[in-house]
Every structure is written in structure tokens, then in C-alpha cells.
């Protein structure tokens, strides 16, 4: 792909060999109606199930796809950060690659960029377990009490933002759960919470404790702008032509 990019979509990947072909078919249907020239950046967070092979095949067949591959599993924060740093679009979107987010909701979120610099989804329709739903409500309540922001669902990965917002996202371990808060605290963006429908075609990979406790502990312990680094060793980059760049 050459020339200016209007939309960059960043998707972390961890052992999604079954989901990736389905996800790409859905994205390929949606992308033409979202913006002008688009790129899709898959960040393989150390997958061990063959997801990297699927991504190579997809990138070979479609020049909109770029791939970043980590040497080992580091986590969502590092994957999102690497993708955001690589993004070239005027508008940048993020979402999960496990079919928990519906690509059709991207257009709805983008329609609100005239009102805010960043828009985050609000998972009002959820198919999670009762424990997951309750823990999410508690976590969001504690986060809003600590930070003072009004975003309803800070941890939702379905987001869109203007490129200028990326500079406000530090390499903070756990930052993917608090991205709207980070944007607001650094004065770079006004975040608006908007409804986005969530599909759940299979169980989430991470339990309640894995996804919530660490981030909440750090939020209470220190300011969000004094976080820990989210390091990752990149062992492979695949450019839009499908060529491997090590």
C-alpha cells in the first residue's frame, strides 16, 4: 500500500487460528464503507497455535494487512502499544480479534468523532458469565471513583480516535484497560462513551482476576502517568506486499 492512509485498525492476536479467517471476512466487508484507504495491523502476541501462518497468508492476499509478531506472549498493553505506534492513519481504531467485537460497530463509533477526539464502545449487550459482568461493573465503578472520568466501559477494546491521541498513550502495562482515562488525564482528548453491541461466540481466554485485579491495584497505587513499561521483542514485521521483514 502506498499513499496516505485514512484509517488504521489495530488488532492484538493471541492464539486465534480459528477466529482470524472469520474476522477478516467480516472486516473485508466493512472496511470499504468506513473511510478512504485503510490498513489493518495485526499484532501477534506470541501465538503458538499457527495464527502467525494464517496472518502471513492473509497478508499475502491483501495489501491492506500489516503484521507485527512478538517473540513471546507479553500481553494486550504491549500489543496495542506496538500497533498504535506503527499506525499511519488519520483515524485509528482498535478492537479484539477473538470475535468479541462486531466490526459493523466501527462505523457507528466513527460517526461520533465530530463530538469527541476519541470514542470508546460501551458493551451494553453482553454474553459473559454473571461473575464477569459483576466484576466489570465493580471495576468500572472503582475506576470512575479514582479517576473521575465518566466513560462507562473503559476496558472495551472497540475504540476509535484521532491520530493526535496516540501521543497520549504511554507504554504502561495495563494501559489498554484505562486508555480513555489516560487520554483525558493528559488533556489530549475528550472521550465519549457510546453503545456497541458485543458478540460472544466462545469463552474469553482470560479470567476475571487476570483482567482486572492487576490494573485496579496499579490504578489505586500510583498516578496513571507513572506506569511501568510494556516491553516486547518484535521478531517479524510483514509489510503490505506480504514480504517478511525481520
Shape: globular
Secondary structure: number of strands: 9
Question: Any idea of the CATH topology?
Answer: Spore Coat Polysaccharide Biosynthesis Protein SpsA, Chain A
CATH class: Alpha Beta
Distance between the termini: 19 Å
Structure description:
- This protein has 246 residues and is an alpha/beta fold.
- It has one domain: Spore Coat Polysaccharide Biosynthesis Protein SpsA, Chain A (Alpha-Beta Complex), CATH 3.90.550.
- It has a 9-stranded mixed sheet, with helices on both faces.
Summary, kept brief:
32% of the residues lie in helices and 18% in strands. With 246 residues, it is an alpha/beta fold.
Break the fold down into its secondary structure elements and pairings:
Layout: E1 7-13, H1 19-30, E2 38-44, H2 51-61, E3 65-70, H3 76-86, E4 91-94, H4 105-110, E5 118-122, H5 130-147, E6 159-162, H6 179-185, E7 191-195, H7 208-221, E8 234-238, E9 244-245
Parallel strand pairs: 1-2, 1-4, 2-3, 5-7
Antiparallel strand pairs: 3-8, 4-6, 5-6, 8-9
Helix pairs in contact: 5-7
Quickly list its features.
246 residues; alpha/beta; Spore Coat Polysaccharide Biosynthesis Protein SpsA, Chain A; 9-stranded mixed β-sheet; 7 helices; 18% strand
